[in-house]
Design goal:
The complex is a heterodimer of chains A (743) and B (222).
Chain A: H1 6-11, H2 26-36, H3 42-51, H4 54-57, H5 62-65, H6 67-70, E1 78-80, E2 88-92, E3 95-103, H7 105-110, H8 112-129, E4 133-143, H9 149-169, E5 173-180, E6 189-199, E7 214-219, H10 229-233, H11 254-269, E8 275-279, H12 283-294, E9 299-302, H13 315-320, E10 326-331, H14 336-345, E11 350-356, E12 362-366, E13 369-374, H15 376-380, H16 395-401, H17 412-424, H18 432-435, E14 446-448, E15 455-458, E16 466-472, H19 475-480, H20 482-498, E17 503-512, H21 519-539, E18 543-549, E19 553-554, E20 557-558, E21 562-571, E22 588-592, H22 603-607, H23 620-635, E23 641-644, H24 649-660, E24 665-667, H25 672-677, E25 684-688, H26 693-702, E26 707-713, E27 717-720, E28 723-726, H27 727-742
Parallel strand pairs in A: 4-5, 9-12, 17-18, 24-27
Antiparallel strand pairs in A: 1-2, 2-3, 3-6, 4-6, 7-10, 7-11, 8-10, 9-11, 12-13, 14-15, 15-16, 16-21, 17-21, 19-20, 22-25, 22-26, 23-25, 24-26, 27-28
Chain B: E1 2-7, H1 14-24, E2 27-32, E3 43-46, H2 68-76, E4 81-84, H3 86-93, E5 100-102, E6 110-118, E7 134-141, E8 145-147, H4 150-158, E9 162-166, E10 178-182, E11 188-191, H5 210-221
Parallel strand pairs in B: 1-2, 1-3, 3-4, 4-11
Antiparallel strand pairs in B: 5-8, 6-7, 6-9, 9-10, 10-11
Helix pairs in contact in B: 1-5
Classes of the chains: A alpha+beta (743), B alpha/beta (222).
Chain lengths: 743, 222
């Protein structure tokens, strides 16, 4: 095929173009023509198609996401906000921390190992791009039923991919989630979170400033993998019977990324870049247009200089390729020699492909011919914006009428069988089969990881400063009430930070939904964003960034609305954190928070096939008082242990606590069925020595949090009223599920 | 006492190994794979990781690094040399110790707190432990199954060169539960689990791993 140039586009305005195949709608194609005053060249069309995809442009979500800005809390903690590769938060002592969670759902269904691996790779590069050293990863995962044949194909591959890539990068995996539900069967969710740390002065931004500065592409060579990944894969509903979309999945090489990280950090340390951008979704189209937009707009790129793995790639393919492990830097001419020298030290391929100009257009040539001549903002930021129709789906009112009354245990035998059932049900069972495939020790700073409430890493060995991160979503509640569901997930993630004694500081999110073209899904999304924005404002937590994943839908079946909320907190001295469990007998166990009888959306209801009911209403004032109590109690060394209650209620929290160090407990509770299985939000189990009971009562009173004694630690069983379950029985039930399912 | 820690492209546990050396009271010196010099160190650690992405075979490319030439010469002369995980694989590829590390029997990467028994406490890297002392340190690898022919196994057993064995269920299919072996002289040790991750109860399963690093400092004083 001959090269389509700007001159040809002007000369032949009516050449038919395959915009629909590239995922562009007719009116979008028309507005590209209007922007340019002519038809786009095939290379320009390629760029617009990937950058205006749902995945890159947020065209369906933008009108809602702006609430995060409008309702933003006033805070000095946020150093870099939404819009850059990742938000940056001040955590004190001159340190800044950046964190973000992103989805890689669609590629992971097609090709589980590579999809999950490159999901980790992509988020790590986002963090690196801010100038930070990546220090930990987490991975919230969701699958179809645990015993479904396709889950056995998808889950082991995804877990191996997350581990294969993350382990090879030397990043500890400090937690995540694993949830099973029918609606994820054709649309598993792979969300990946990365945390990075830097000094304030090291923050880097994606901007191409200073005419004459050089545009350098470094890292892996460009190949034919992942072409159109964002437009073809992530922005369309899977058809039940379509052709396999494998060529659109990227293939990762973690070794190249590890070397790229070390090389980039050495380059940053010598202050050799003006701006930097990683190449992820939409590849060079994204990196060049975003860098140019971040400056005055002028940039010239010689596309034929891009080093290729496959020399037969066309310019359109080079622009769209999502080959992994590539970065694009803006470097002053006086610093280029040192830049290239460091790349050589790490055996990283680096090539000057262009320069910043004082113009306003991004101009790309191929073998001397002009093939792209566009205002870069129109590609990167001025994409279409849709105010899609939304309507409350019919099911909302129907499910609200359902009475949720699963059978509750009363006798000793029933309590025992209930506890063993809860211990072994896939959503609550021990996840070591998965997490043992991840390195949690590398870098030597991991303080907490799965099954702790949050992951925690030390960021300074001398001062013992650390950060904690938790991710949570409760899709069952979001299904019943997306507004409350978002707030409840936010509260839970914040509480999971606070149980260890860390203070919640900032929020990231990954909003996983079905098709935005379905008004019911769009309503779920709008309600979720409204709930999260209101919740963050009320709790005083800034949203630092996030990601939207639509089209998680097979045919007409959408996933449950699944907003994964990540909260980052800071702890001044990691040595004093409150652990999730106890090692000693004779401690007193208390429940903070009141329990109600609503089982809607609970795991116990789900086990009994009950989906409906009315979700709890989030009481964020009470949640904030509980968080204050937990942080204050940690500061005064009040707690021996503290563990959050969430999915699975008191039952699973007690099981996790007694099994952690093999020390049992004796529990005496009224209404054992509801007490064990209710998932009323805003509750925490704490263990204290007898000498500290008065202090605990005073603190709970001061923060107006109900407090009830539930038992004491000790023995080799978990005794609940007159039911005795040996720790061995409990351990077998808790740990055998995943081994049996996945072997 | 200066202990060198080598960084190859793809090495991951180099900072952890350097920290362990400092905790034990030594001075850690960074060595770079591409520099054929040992900077006057008294002992060397080849740390864990995925050097060269484990391409070809684990450790197969790293063994040809420029730093390996003076290192092999010094170790042959008696300088203490410890290879942990990927470092063990490099030692095997360099034929400084016999045998090979292959894919875990169950084919998964495994990260777990592993109990091991110190079977020979007369090497440069194990003299801080008592014989038959059981310790817990992290094990984390995808290719940690130690394999050798029957004759080599007999020799290792006969000469007391199996310095540590896994206790309990075999975690990766290693022959005779081998977790670590030494050369004939006892100055070169290859170890699959990670003592550098068990030097502080805050960040590891305990402090059982510190003994490997205090051992070498003692060995050098002698």
């Amino acid at each position: 095929m001959s090269l389509d140039t700007v001159a040809k586009a002007k000369a032949n305005p009516d050449t038919p173009q395959p915009f629909a195949e590239l995922g562009l709608k007719p009116d979008e194609y028309a507005s590209i023509k209007e922007i340019l005053g002519r038809r786009p060249t095939s290379s320009e069309l390629a760029m617009y198609s990937v950058m205006w995809s749902e995945h890159c442009s947020y065209k369906s979500s933008k009108v809602h996401l702006k609430q995060f800005g409008e309702k933003a809390v006033k805070t000095d903690a946020l150093l870099v906000g939404i819009g850059e590769n990742a938000g940056v938060v001040d955590v004190g002592q001159g340190y800044a921390v950046t964190f973000k969670v992103e989805s890689h759902n669609h590629p992971s269904f097609i090709e589980p190992y590579q999809g999950a691996a490159t999901g980790v790779g992509g988020i790590v590069r986002d963090i690196l791009t801010m100038g930070a050293r990546p220090i930990a990863v987490m991975d919230p995962l969701r699958f179809g039923p645990a015993d479904a044949p396709d889950t056995r194909r998808v889950l082991p591959g995804i877990v191996a991919g997350v581990g294969g890539y993350g382990n090879c990068l030397g990043l500890p995996n400090i937690g995540g989630e694993v949830v099973f539900d029918e609606t994820y069967l054709g649309n598993p969710l792979v969300n990946a979170l990365c945390v990075g740390v830097m000094k304030h002065s090291d923050i880097k931004l994606a901007k191409a400033a200073g005419a004459g500065n050089l545009v350098v592409l470094y890292g892996a060579k460009t190949g034919g993998d992942g072409i159109g990944g964002v437009s073809v894969l992530a922005s369309e509903t899977f058809e039940s019977k379509g052709p396999a979309k494998r060529p659109a999945v990227q293939v990762g090489d973690p070794f190249v990324e590890k070397v790229l990280i070390e090389c980039s950090l050495e380059i940053f340390a010598e202050d050799l870049v003006v701006g930097i951008q990683d190449l992820g979704g939409a590849g060079l189209s994204c990196a060049t247009s975003e860098l140019a937009s971040g400056g005055s707009g002028g940039m010239k790129v010689q596309l034929d200089k891009v080093p290729l793995r496959d020399p037969s790639l066309s310019p359109e393919e080079i622009l769209m390729s999502e080959s992994q492990e590539r970065m694009c830097a803006i470097v002053e001419p006086s610093k280029i020699d040192r830049f290239l020298e460091i790349c050589k030290k790490w055996d990283v391929t680096s090539t000057v492909i262009g320069e910043v100009t004082d113009g306003t257009h991004l101009e790309i040539t191929f073998n001397g011919e002009l093939i792209v001549d566009v205002p870069p903002r129109t590609v990167a930021h001025d994409g279409p914006v849709y105010n899609r129709p939304l309507a409350q789906p019919d099911y909302i009112n129907q499910v609200a009428k359902e009475v949720i009354n699963p059978p509750l245990p009363t006798t000793a035998a029933e309590i025992k069988s209930t506890m063993l059932k809860v211990a072994g049900t896939p959503n609550l069972a021990d996840k070591s089969w998965i997490t043992d495939q991840y390195d949690r020790y590398v870098q030597g700073n991991t303080i907490q990881s799965q099954p702790d409430d949050s992951g925690m890493v030390r960021i300074d060995e001398k001062t013992h400063l650390g950060v904690a991160v938790a991710t949570d979503a409760n899709a069952n509640w979001s299904y019943l009430n997306p507004y409350e569901g978002a707030k409840l997930a936010l509260a839970e993630a914040a509480r999971n930070i606070a149980t260890a004694g860390a203070k919640p500081l900032a929020v990231t999110n990954c909003l996983n939904f079905g098709s935005p073209e379905d008004p019911g899904v769009m309503w779920q999304f709008a309600e979720t964003v409204r709930g999260l924005a209101d919740g963050c404002l009320e709790m005083g937590l800034p949203v630092t960034g996030g990601n939207v994943s639509f089209y998680n839908q097979t045919g007409t079946v959408a996933i449950l609305p699944t907003p994964v909320i990540g909260v980052l907190g800071v702890i001044d001295d990691v040595r004093t954190r409150t652990p999730m469990s106890f090692k000693d007998a004779g401690l007193e166990l208390f429940l903070l928070g009141a329990t109600d009888e609503n089982l809607s959306g609970s795991e116990w209801a789900y086990i009994h096939g009950m989906r409906g009911g009315i979700a709890p209403t989030a009481d964020l004032q009470r949640e904030m008082r509980l968080i204050e109590l937990l942080v204050a109690g940690n500061k005064s060394a009040l707690f021996t242990a503290a563990h959050d209650l969430s999915q699975g209620g008191l039952a699973i929290s007690l099981i996790e606590m007694v099994l952690r160090h093999n020390v049992g407990a004796t529990i005496a509770i009224d209404k054992p069925g509801i007490s064990l299985l209710s998932e009323t939000p805003g509750r925490v189990v704490v263990a204290v020595t007898s000498a500290k009971v008065d202090e605990l009562e005073n603190l709970a009173g001061k923060h107006s949090i109900p407090l009830s004694k539930i038992g004491a630690t000790g023995g080799d069983s978990l005794v609940i009223n007159d039911a005795t379950i040996s720790l061995d029985e409990l351990r077998t039930a808790h740990t055998e599920t995943f081994k049996k399912l996945f072997g | 006492m200066k202990i060198g820690v080598v960084t190859f492209p793809g090495t991951l546990d180099d900072r952890d190994a350097a920290r362990a050396v400092r905790y034990a009271g030594g001075e850690a010196v960074a060595l770079w794979h591409d520099d054929a010099e040992l900077k006057g160190v008294d002992a060397v650690i080849l740390p864990g990781g995925f050097s060269y992405g484990d391409y070809l075979r684990c450790g197969a490319i790293s063994r040809f690094s420029p730093v390996m030439e003076p290192l092999i010469a010094a170790a042959m002369g008696g300088m203490p040399l410890l290879g942990i995980c990927n470092g063990f694989q490099v030692l095997a590829e360099a034929h400084l110790i016999p045998g090979a590390l292959t894919r875990n029997q169950h084919l998964h990467f495994l990260c777990t707190d592993q109990k091991i028994r110190i079977e020979n406490n007369n090497t440069a890297w194990t003299n801080s432990y008592t014989k038959d002392q059981e310790i817990v340190i992290p094990l984390k690898n995808g290719e940690g199954s130690y394999q050798c022919d029957d004759e080599t196994l007999k020799m290792l057993e006969g000469e007391g060169r199996i310095i540590a064995r896994y206790v309990g269920e075999n975690p990766n299919g290693s022959r005779n539960l081998i977790a670590g072996i030494s050369n004939e002289r006892g100055n070169i040790v290859g170890l699959m689990p990670h003592p550098e991750h068990a030097i502080d109860a805050l960040t590891g399963p305990g402090v059982d791993g510190l003994g490997f690093f205090t051992s070498v400092l003692k060995a050098m004083v002698k």
